[in-house]
């Protein structure tokens, strides 16, 4: 049996959590492979709504083993807050496994994330302020703290001493902040060691052995293709690999074992934070999409920027990730519009671009070339099959599919787990 990746095809918040949850009862493991508590995945099951940040959405499926992979950065306080919150609501979290090689987010990195943004001023990224960027930077710089180190106080203390020599210079001399102390940092991390210890293992070994036994592993991305540190709209990106390649490095599962990549794509586009966004709407239509789609960040509560569907970035995501199936989400939000425009290409200084411009300056100047599709007024939230959709909604889906580089295998028509039209069985 295969490993399957679920990735975001736009700038995040496409509905990855709902899609992962939907497939939860068909898979044995759900793995978060990148990012940290910058993510916010909302899952609605009946009258219950869950907002997950650090835990993979598979945690909501009884019997499915949730795994935090080596590519994740872990805020330990948030991890246990989330576990306790779910346990209090009757969710069993006892199967959770955490990679010994995932890095921890220490307090100095949360401080540095926030203060760096303040110093950047108008050049800020609009980060979630969770310490994600500085923690990945430490990992690359080889001064990070892998989870395994918190079980050895001597090694932990040595590493914290080493990293604080540098961090405290930056905190105090550049940013005029208080320095962090070795004792307090070590104490804060050690506080979680006992509870964490039984969950920690070689998750790469665990997952590969599961695949050897014929079990199914679902890899759930945080963030999305256009926020990927390599393939996104740099520097307005997150600091991890959110694409299909990252699913391998962030989990320890080799590429040949992954035979399906499910791209989650919203029927329009949203973005949180700064950075270019060609189809962004600053008019009443943008406000309409925000209101009807409830487009406010799950993590920071910030209003999401909204715009029309952009087939150029969908094609790009299909290519970068090798998308085999798209899940088109939130089609219901487009109900009630006279016409629904779709961006088919960009005009950059008089030159037509059918593919993503390689140069970020060109992308900043990209003007969408739209094709308009007639809208529909019928309520589609109870549709169970593709045939149940009104003709104009069907035509919109078929047109978007043709432009986006992979088949659309499922369509979201509401937030609930059941509000999904399955066109081709996903697993
Ligand atoms: P993620 O970060 O990709 O998991 O997405 P978020 O959970 O941050 O944002 C997606 C939002 O849309 C959540 O509030 C979901 O409950 C909701 N949602 C997902 N699919 C659908 C859909 O098909 N229709 C509607 N109306 N809402 C949806
Ligand atoms: P999910 O998994 C949308 C954005 C932030 C900011 C940039 C960098 O719910 O789709 P960071 O804190 O990661 O250094 O911020 O990335 N961002 C997200 N936007 N959905 C997310 O996650 C995001 N995670 C980070 O708004 O622009
Ligand atoms: Mg989200």
Summary keywords:
binds 6-O-phosphoryl inosine monophosphate; alpha/beta; ten-stranded mixed beta sheet; binds magnesium ion; binds guanosine-5'-diphosphate; 427 residues; four-stranded mixed beta sheet; globular; 31% helix; 20 strands; single chain
Would you kindly provide a written description of the structure presented here, covering whatever features stand out?
Helix 3 (107-120) packs across helix 4 and helix 5 packs across helix 6. The chain is 31% helix and 21% strand. Strand 3 and strand 4 form a beta hairpin. The strands form 5 sheets. The protein has a 10-stranded mixed beta sheet, with helices on both faces. Strands 14, 16, 17 and 18 form a 4-stranded mixed beta sheet that branches. It has a two-stranded antiparallel sheet with strand order 3-4. It is α/β, with parallel strands linked by helices. Bound molecules: guanosine-5'-diphosphate, 6-O-phosphoryl inosine monophosphate and magnesium ion.
Neighbour order of strands in the largest sheet: 9-7-5-2-10-1-11-15-19-20
Which word captures the global form? globular
**In terms of per-residue confidence, which ranges show pLDDT below 50 for 5 or more consecutive residues?**
none
Bound molecules: guanosine-5'-diphosphate, 6-O-phosphoryl inosine monophosphate, magnesium ion
Largest sheet: 10 strands, mixed
Structural class comes to alpha/beta
Mean pLDDT: 97
Number of helices: 13
Radius of gyration (Å): 21 Å
The termini sit apart by 10 Å
- The helix content is 25-40%
């Amino acid at each position: 049996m295969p490993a399957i990746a679920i990735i975001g095809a736009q700038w995040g918040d496409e509905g990855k959590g709902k899609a992962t949850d939907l497939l939860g009862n068909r898979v044995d493991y759900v793995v978060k492979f990148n990012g940290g508590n910058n993510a916010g995945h909302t899952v609605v099951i009946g009258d219950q709504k869950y907002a997950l940040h650090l835990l993979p959405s598979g945690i909501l499926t009884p019997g499915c083993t949730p795994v935090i992979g080596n590519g994740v950065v872990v805020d330990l306080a948030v991890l246990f807050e989330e576990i306790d919150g779910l346990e209090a609501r009757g969710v069993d979290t006892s199967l959770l496994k955490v990679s010994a090689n995932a890095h921890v987010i220490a307090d100095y990195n949360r401080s540095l994330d926030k203060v760096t943004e303040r110093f950047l001023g108008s050049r800020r990224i609009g980060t979630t302020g969770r310490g994600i960027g500085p923690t990945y930077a430490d990992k690359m710089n080889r001064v990070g703290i892998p989870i395994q180190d918190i079980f050895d106080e001597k090694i932990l203390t040595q590493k914290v001493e080493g990293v604080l020599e540098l961090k405290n210079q930056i905190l105090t001399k550049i940013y005029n902040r208080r320095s962090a102390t070795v004792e307090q940092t070590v104490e804060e991390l050690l506080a979680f060691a006992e509870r964490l210890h039984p969950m920690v293992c070689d998750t790469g070994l665990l997952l590969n052995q599961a695949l050897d036994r014929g079990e199914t592993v679902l890899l759930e991305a945080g963030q999305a293709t256009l926020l990927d540190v390599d393939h996104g709209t740099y520097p307005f990106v997150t600091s991890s690999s959110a694409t299909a390649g990252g699913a391998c490095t962030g989990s320890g599962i080799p590429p040949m074992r992954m035979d399906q990549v499910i791209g989650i794509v919203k029927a329009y586009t949203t973005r949180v934070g700064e950075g270019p966004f060609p189809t962004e709407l600053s008019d009443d239509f943008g406000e309409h999409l925000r209101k009807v789609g409830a487009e406010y960040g799950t993590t920071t509560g910030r209003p999401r920027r909204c715009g029309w569907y952009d087939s150029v970035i969908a094609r790009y995501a299909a290519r970068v990730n090798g998308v085999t199936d798209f899940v088109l989400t939130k089609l219901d939000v487009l109900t009630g519009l006279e016409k629904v425009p779709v961006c088919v290409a960009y005009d950059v200084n008089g030159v037509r671009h059918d593919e993503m411009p390689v140069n970020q300056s060109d992308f900043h100047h990209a003007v969408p070339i739209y094709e308009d599709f007639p809208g529909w007024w019928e309520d589609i939230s109870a549709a169970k099959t593709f045939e149940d959709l009104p003709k104009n909604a069907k035509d919109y889906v078929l047109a978007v599919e043709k432009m986006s580089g992979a088949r659309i295998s499922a369509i979201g028509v509401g937030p609930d787990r059941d509000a999904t039209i399955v066109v081709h069985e996903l697993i």
